[in-house]
Write a structure and sequence with these properties.
alpha+beta
Length: 55
C-alpha cells in the first residue's frame, strides 16, 4: 500500500493520504499515544472509510 500519493486538481498539487493509511492511523494513534483519548469521530471516520473501500 502506498501511504501518500500526489494528486492535482485545477492546477494545485497536494499529497493525499490513502484511505487504508487513514484507517490505520485512526485505529492505532491512541495505542501509540495513550495520553490522547479515542475520539467518537474517529470511529465514525473508520466506518465511513471502510464502507467506501468495500464498494
Amino acid at each position: 500500500m502506498q501511504m501518500v500519493a500526489r494528486r492535482t486538481l485545477s492546477g494545485i498539487t497536494c499529497p493525499i493520504i490513502a484511505p487504508e493509511a487513514q484507517i490505520e492511523i485512526k485505529r492505532m494513534y491512541p495505542v501509540w499515544n495513550p495520553a490522547l483519548p479515542r475520539r467518537p469521530r474517529d470511529a465514525t471516520d473508520i466506518g465511513r472509510l471502510g464502507a467506501r473501500l468495500r464498494r
